[in-house]
Amino acid sequence: MDLGQLAELRTPAGSAALAAATEVAGADPLAAAMTLRSAGLPAGLAAAALTQAELRRRAMGKFGPAAADMFFTRAGLEQATRRVVARRRADRLRAAGVRTLADLGCGLGADALAAAHAGLRVYGVEADPLTAAIAAANAEAAGLTERFTVDHGDATAFDTDRVDGVFCDPARRRTGTGRRIFDPSAYAPPWDFVVGLAGRVPRTVVKVAPGLDHQLIPAGAEAEWVSVHGDLVEATLWCGELATVARRATVLREASPGDASSSAGSAAHHATAHELTGSTVAEAPVGPVRRYVYDPDPAVVRAHLVAELAGMLDANLADPTIAYLYADTPTPTPFARCLEITDVLPFSLKRLRALLRERRVGRVEIRKRGSALEPERLRHDLRLTGDQPASLVLTRVGGAPTVLICHPPTS
Ligand SMILES: C[S@@+](CC[C@H](N)C(=O)[O-])C[C@H]1O[C@@H](n2cnc3c(N)ncnc32)[C@H](O)[C@@H]1O
């Protein structure tokens, strides 16, 4: 899409084309294009409308029903923050007293819209002209043009004295190829500028890749790792006055449309959140394998809060370098998956296969930490034939490759 096509899609004829494209999107793309062409739509408009309809359909997972009125680019959607995560961040900023916020590199506006929705006045800056125009169109679609305005320009030139908080979510993919960038020094805006913001604006928030090296966390900043339904989605650095602890793991679950707490069409707006916080100094005790094994949420592991979780669960590690926890009782927790262990075996394919046959196990869920085995390969090699389920945990205990045969806790 280019700026001309975006403008065309925003005319009454464009809206009609989008409505028609929404009806046929998701099916065979050639057939969809033919249907629109035979309804009299010019080829360019039909193609642009179909691309938008397809992106809107995909964006439902991140934005819920609001996606139906938004505009996207493929790269902008990939990089956009999920609504549930953006809204939590916005609420925290508001609670911390931020009223005017600069979003430096605002993309198509997912974070800025959430902040505007929370009542903040947001000044977005975006270097890519099409993405900036899309962010402005999304502000209009959300009825938030009075609280979220976008300038096309270079974020590094923004006068931060104009605002009382700054948010930056630097691009972590290369323009053109879309390839992920792992080295923060290649982020855009540049990492030096991004971390330098914390020295200039007392309330600075930075979104970074969840794989961020802990060494790069600015001194005194709070680092938060966020997961949604067990998938690690981002890390956030809360700098200056916004930092309240050293490390935080936030575990979010969105209500599914079938949940009693969620009304139809509003799934993306309901979420449960659990937070675990801690220092960087606690160490989990190391001891034996016990009756229950806990597989901590990736946000807890990345935040280095396994010791804090061990304290909550009265649990220990069985290997100082592997983040499985073991306890005598099954304590319900949102921060880990708990399994009851029935067998602990030194790893041997032959023995494992024989035991699973004896138990008529035909379906296995495989988890692993500290094991080089490939779960799909193992599943194939086990040649299971039974009708019973089991969970396998591949790990090391005291340095030795070990498999735990497990099932969900019964008590
Ligand atoms: C990761 S995206 C932001 C996504 C946004 N937070 C959201 O959730 O929709 C980063 C954006 O920064 C923009 N950008 C990179 N360098 C910039 C600069 N120097 N000035 C302004 N924008 C920049 C990129 O074009 C990209 O759209």
UniProtKB/TrEMBL annotation:
On the tree of life, the source organism's domain of life is Bacteria
List GO molecular-function terms, semicolon-separated.
methyltransferase activity
Where is each Methyltransferase domain found? 103-168
Ordered alphabetically, the record's keywords are: Methyltransferase, Transferase
| An example Gene Ontology biological process | methylation
Q: Name one Pfam family in it.
A: Methyltransf_25
Q: Which organism is it from?
A: Salinispora arenicola
Q: Which InterPro entries match?
A: Methyltransf_25, SAM-dependent_MTases_sf, Thump-like
Its recorded name reads: Methyltransferase
Instruction: Please state every residue range assigned to the domain named THUMP-like.
Output: 336-408
